[in-house]
Amino acid sequence: MLALRNKIALRLGYKSWDDYQTEIKMAKTSAGAKSYIDNLISGIQPKFAAEVSAFQKMKAADTNNPDATIDIWDWRHYTNQLKKQKYNVDTEALRAYFPFQKVLEGMFKIYQSIFGLKFEQITAPSKWIGDLQLYVVTDSATGEPLGMFYLDMFPREGKYNHFAEFEIIGGKLWPDGKYQRPTVALLCNFPPPNVDKPSLMTHTDVETLFHEFGHALHSITTRAHYARFAGTHVPGDFVEAPSQMLQNWVWDKKVLDTFAGDYRDPSKKIPAATIQKMNDAKLATAGVFYRRQFAFASLDLALHGVHQEDAPYDCVAISNPVVEKVFLPIDPGTTFVTYFGHLNGYDAGYYGYAWADAIAADIATAFEKANGQYLDRDAGLRLRHEIYKQGDGRDVSLSIEKFLGRKQSIEPFLKKIAVTGTAEKKKTPAGPSQESR
């Protein structure tokens, strides 16, 4: 794969496959992507080192060996042990607070309010499943119809078995000045109700719903002139960021209290201490989690970097040192790269996960600083008009900066994952024209 990709890139006049792949993304060049990941690697180093040190002490106690080292096969075990010992939360018991219909209605109420929208259920003209729902979305101020969304929420035989938003009709401007209103479908697999209980969601399910519905809003509120650039048709290293950002909502007690209540007694809310413990558990090993992600992003870019056309590839020799340098010591006889399925489909693009996470944290600051925080209407309308509405009709870097009122930064991301400080305050480089950041 690498040899063929490299040959294609060179024949097309690029220096490498990663330069070819990043040209149409926010990164613009492989140098932009690499610089971004390198800044994150160095920025997260203090937290990563502290977590590995905590793991080392646990392993030293387990093995009676004060010199025990944390190897790459240890991190999952000690992540689990740490969370069990310090942050034990009964996730199954939390289901009682998340009956599906209440969560859906609560999410609708929040998104309608902050984005200035109105959702109205109508009868679907035709259905592919009996419990299919169809909603019309209008602007709450003007009454202008904006688009529609279908909800296909529960599992069944033969159905797509993950969670995703699919575009059915994309937005675009017709020659006569009318706008083609988008229609999308949300396909989910939440636990179905039974005779004794309603559908009860896990907290992760709720997070997934808030995320996926963000993609639906991105698609429906677009006003980009061309379908190719409308809604979620944005650079691959940005498309997840606006929805990723909306996941913050379900970790906030003020937001959760608007819809989460015990289905047997809705007046009972999730205790603040439980929500705090959930947040603490999420942050406890964020350094190790993200350094692993950064290692994969780095090896992906390294494998697709500059390479002579006819020179052979020693993929293990390229990738193993990268993983060891960025993450943890590995057995030199192992070949992680032969298992790394993301090389097929995310080639020279795995960095996009971290890129989107950092942008999402940056965008979220506009809500966190607003008077109403995550329920703030002004921040929501600005997000809708400066980012969702634009699609890729203008450079998404410009859209982000217009929304934020400043240049992008990785500092909010580092702060969010509890990195208290970095050696240097670095702004996020997003391409050759912005290297001054």
Helix-strand sequence: HHHHHHEEEEEEEHHHHHHHHHH
What structural category do the secondary elements indicate?
Answer: alpha+beta
What characterizes the major β-sheet? 5 strands, mixed
The best one-word shape is: globular
| Proportion of beta-strand residues | 5-15%
| CATH topology (fold) name of the largest domain | Neurolysin, domain 3
**CATH homologous superfamily (4th level) name of the largest domain:** Neurolysin, domain 3
Task: Name the CATH architecture of the largest domain.
Answer: Orthogonal Bundle
Number of strands: 7
End-to-end separation = 34 Å
Biggest sheet strand order reads 1-2-3-7-4
Mean pLDDT across all residues, rounded? 93
Number of helices: 16
Helix content: 40-55%
Rg, nearest Å: 23 Å
CATH first level of the largest domain: Mainly Alpha
Query: Could you say how many structural domains there are in total?
Result: 2
Give unreliable regions as ranges.
Answer: 422-437
Fold blueprint:
Blueprint: H1 2-11, H2 17-22, H3 30-43, H4 45-63, H5 75-86, H6 100-115, E1 117-122, E2 133-139, E3 145-152, E4 164-169, E5 172-173, E6 179-180, E7 183-187, H7 203-220, H8 241-246, H9 253-256, H10 272-284, H11 286-303, H12 315-326, H13 351-368, H14 377-388, H15 396-404, H16 411-416
Parallel strand pairs: 3-7
Antiparallel strand pairs: 1-2, 2-3, 4-7, 5-6
Helix pairs in contact: 3-11, 4-5, 4-11, 6-14, 11-12, 11-13, 14-15
What can you see in these coordinates?
There is one protein chain. The chain is α+β, with helices and mostly antiparallel strands and 437 residues long. 44% of the residues lie in helices and 8% in strands. The chain has 2 domains: 217 residues, Orthogonal Bundle (Neurolysin, domain 3), CATH 1.10.1370.10; 170 residues, Collagenase (Catalytic Domain). It has 16 helices and 7 strands. Helix 11 runs antiparallel to helix 12 and helix 11 crosses helix 13. The C terminus is likely disordered.
